[in-house]
Amino acid sequence: MTSNFSAAWAKTTPLLIFSCFCLLTGDVLFGYDTGSYGGILANPGFLARFAPYHEATKTHAFDSLHTSLLSSLPFIGKFIGCLAAGPAIERVGHRMVFFALSLSSVVGVIIEITSTKYVQFLIGRIIVYISVGLVEVNVTTYQAEIVPAAFRGLVVVSLQLFLAIGTTIATGVNKAFSTSKTNVGWQVVTGIQFVFPLLICLFTFFIPNSPRWLLSKDRDDEAVNSLRRLRSKADVDTGHCEAEIAAIRDSLQENVHKASWFDLIRGTNLRRTLLVVAYYFFQQTTGQAFVSTYQTTFYKTNGFAAQAFTFPIITSCLGFLAVVPAMYLVDSVGRRITLLQSYLFQAFWLFLLAGLGSKTVRSTTEDNTVVASFMLYAISYNMGSASIPYLLGAEIPNSALREKTQALGSAWNVIWAFVTNFVIPYMINSIHFKVGWVFGGVSLVALVFTFFFLPETKGRALEEIDAIFSVPFNPCKPNVVPLTEQQHRIARLEGDDTDTKSGAEVTCV
After folding, report:
1. Of 102, 377, 428, 485, most Cβ neighbours within 10 A?
2. Does some domain include residue 346?
3. Residues spanned by the domain of 45
4. Is residue 17 assigned to a domain?
């Protein structure tokens, strides 16, 4: 792994690094919006502007229904963005979609900060979330198609790092305005989101189109030129770029051009589609919204009001730090092991939180352990199951269906994000800490599913992954993976000169 990684890394160029990471600004937008909203819900100025006044308590407050609607309905926008992203990328390419999502985000933020009514703010959030849906599909598929296989995991998983950066910034800004009783506080917190789409729009002018997307349009010469911009001078001078494009086209054969939605359930594509859909389901239903979106509200209503804005900052920082080892592990020990350990520890911390939190009388040590369980859950989640679904959605599908599969998986993810965000306020009000039993149980299901059904894909060129799904998967012994000569050529050209990878036996056919 180390030699393969070093060989691939030696082929990188400043433009490749820039193209891989600059547009993750979009994920900072997603992380910031998610993190800032949790604080805005508890912001005195926001509540005074939009929440009804309760004479009995002399305070402004939302009931569970209005909290749920404000949290869940924006996912309608994300659903639209995710589902539209696939066909849009196929038709006009990643670069044009980046421009479109920037416009959507700016319009949504303007509507939000000028809101005088609850409904107007809700509409603004829905429009912002259209851009979030486009980001989720566009960034991951673009990265997967331009980066060498040896560190594709590191690059795609890094989106969680940028999500965590956005969340950390948001929690800090929320803390700064947590006592603001005027509109300025929540408007500043919301208005900061202008920065991210403007940066995306600027950066897009400098990145090339995906060579694989250009191939799908039969623009082979442009595909070569695009790859030449992304690869090292040595690769350009020796003709490796032309050879890699030719090998990709030969390997893809009938999958060069984009396929229909119906092809998602044909042949081996059905297995790939089900895997992507399953992991996007687990991403939302193993407790992340409970910890990320509702932790401030949960702290305020369960005996930790004094630290309700401080603890989320600590949790965000720890989650941010946890992404760094995840970026290494996903390409060293692999996707499977990283996910297995992530789900195992998620379940453990949620069960611990539920068990201790449900006690009628708790000691100071037990209270501290409950808070620590929140934080340690965030670390476990960010070390695998937070980001690897994006990676699997970008690399498991074949080239003809990559955008559509990722779009379908992301849209399915949004449906469950809607469900969880809608029901969690009711769950918190009715079962309190026992929420941990529910989400911890789903984490165990995800653990078992991963062991029995997910093959390892680390270090594989995208075209090689087609071979992995051409044979049945057995979790108890190495798979024999038949690679064509073209697939071997692609692997060598991407910096991988080994014949055995990821615990799989390789044969050439």
Report:
1. 377
2. yes
3. 2-206+250-493
4. yes
Is there a domain that residue 358 lies in? yes
Angle at 501 between CA 500 and CA 505, to 5 degrees: 50
What digits encode the pLDDT tens for the residues 279-332? 999 999 998 877 776 677 667 666 666 777 777 777 777 877 888 888 888 888
User: Has residue 218 been placed in a domain?
Assistant: no
The tokens for 209 are 């189109």
CA 171 to each of CA 24, 92, 108, 116, 191: distance values in angstroms, whole numbers, following the listed order: 19, 36, 21, 24, 15
Total domain count, the chain: 1
Residue 6: exposed, middle, or buried by beta-carbon count in 10 A (0-12, 13-18, 19+)?
Answer: exposed
Question: For the segment 204-260, what is each residue's pLDDT rounded down to a tens digit?
Answer: 999 999 888 888 888 889 988 998 888 888 878 888 888 878 877 776 665 556 778
CATH code of 75's domain: 1.20.1250.20
Q: Where are the alpha helices (DSSP H) in 205-267?
A: 211-216, 220-230, 233-237, 240-252
213 and 145 in contact (C-beta within 8 Å)?
yes
b/e string for 38-50 if b means 16 or more Cβ within 10 A? bbbbbbbbbbbbb
**Angstrom distance (rounded) from CA 411 to CA 409:** 5
Longest dimension (CA), the chain: 78
